[in-house]
Amino acid sequence: MNLKDDIRPISYIKTNAADMLRRVNDTHNPIIITQNGEAKAVLLDTESYQSMKNSLGILKILSQSEKNIDENELYTQECVFSELDEKLSELKKSNE
Q1: pLDDT of 4-17, one tens digit each?
Q2: Which domains does the chain have, with CATH numbers?
Q3: Based on CB atoms within 10 Å of each CB, which residue in 34, 40, 55, 73 is the most buried?
């Protein structure tokens, strides 16, 4: 990632939008968009964006799991499978 090439003012983005889109899709490097000399936004290809969203989702799950452990909100595997078996049996009975 060459920061010099990956930071652009908004005026440049406006006049070279197609080239900038091609660049982020080819390199998968984000482009930092500035306005009045300050970083204001990031242009990112959809694949990288989806990957980032997936990673954040996993981190949220891990964070919630750690919180559950700290609060001693734990369930054994046997308990979980037993509850699933009960619910599946109830569902099967209601569908008969």
Answers
A1: 779 999 999 999 99
A2: 3-44 (3.40.1620), 48-95 (no CATH)
A3: 34
